[in-house]
Design a protein that fits this description.
Order of helices and strands: EHHEEEEHEEEEHEHHEHEEEEE
Strand order of the largest sheet: 3-4-2-1-16-15
CATH class: Alpha Beta
Number of domains: 1
Helix content: 10-25%
Strand content: 25-35%
Shape: globular
Radius of gyration: 17 Å
CATH architecture: 4-Layer Sandwich
CATH superfamily: Endonuclease/exonuclease/phosphatase
Number of helices: 7
Low-confidence stretches: none
Mean pLDDT: 97
């Protein structure tokens, strides 16, 4: 059994300083840990985890975005960001800058599967990055995962910055059309499912009330007024290997909580 955990830490140094990072690892014992929004470079958060190898993809802009994978299993190959032909095809630059310089993606090949850790760009409250996200990033990401899947099963995880259905956020009607719940962003997930990727949490749990992100305002987390925007997806040929998928809202330290996948 391989246990994978994904967590948007919203600043790894802050979570570690609060003493909330290591307890999560000690409790969940991931074989592969995928982090998003690290807001740091390797070595800036001094964490002693000798049993893990660390791989970082930090944004060029200091203290912004970034992903990392800590793994007990040795990867066969590692790729940071999209390959050149995908970048060229989908034009991943906008007024905010070059998306390939924001540390949003790490892919690793293991013997039996690929793991892709992603921190999807936010459409922004004024939707100024929606076009880039919908027409460029989401399409590039799906094309990349489909390409990897030609070789072996793909597990992708991370903060996708979208609630997929009405069951994935506490107040869908009030948020309809707003960033994180536009038809364009939701269509990105529809396209993944259409391409054969399965939302693993929904293989085990139906209905609402299961969230991974809460606003820091008006005690939203205490009241469970949240959104499910962090996911583990697996390609069609990987579904039979999925033993469990969970949300771990008992862990604090970030505005997101960790999620996990057990793969047999």
């Amino acid at each position: 059994m391989v246990k994978l955990v994904s967590w948007n830490v919203n600043g790894i140094r802050a979570v570690h300083k609060k003493g909330m990072f290591l307890p999560m690892i000690q409790n969940l014992k991931p074989d592969i840990l995928c982090l998003q929004e690290t807001k740091a470079e390797r070595g800036q958060a001094v964490i002693d985890l000798p049993e893990y190898e660390e791989y970082w993809n930090s944004a060029k802009k200091k203290g912004y975005s970034g992903t990392a994978i800590f793994t007990k299993m040795k990867p066969l190959n590692i790729a940071l960001d999209f390959p050149e032909h995908i970048v060229k095809k989908f034009e991943l630059k906008d007024g905010y800058g070059d998306l390939t310089g924001e540390g949003r993606l790490i892919a690793m090949e293991f013997e039996d599967f690929f793991v892709v850790n992603v921190y999807t760009p936010n459409a922004k409250p004024d939707l100024s990055r929606l076009d880039m996200r919908h027409k460029h990033w989401d399409r590039a990401f799906l094309a990349y995962c489909k390409e990897l899947n030609k070789k072996k099963p793909v597990i992708f995880c991370g903060d996708l910055n979208v609630a997929h259905t009405y069951d994935d956020l506490a107040n869908p009607k009030q948020n309809e059309g707003g960033h994180g719940f536009t038809k364009e962003e939701r269509e990105g997930i529809d396209n993944m499912i259409e391409a054969g990727f399965a939302d693993t949490f929904r293989m085990f749990v139906k209905g609402n009330g299961h969230y991974t992100w809460w606003s820091n305002f008006s005690a939203a987390r205490d009241r469970n007024i949240g959104w499910r925007i962090d996911y583990f997806f697996v390609s069609k040929d990987g579904v039979k290997h999925v033993k469990n998928a969970s949300i771990h809202n008992e862990f604090y330290g970030s505005d997101h909580c960790p999620i996990s996948l057990e793969w047999k």
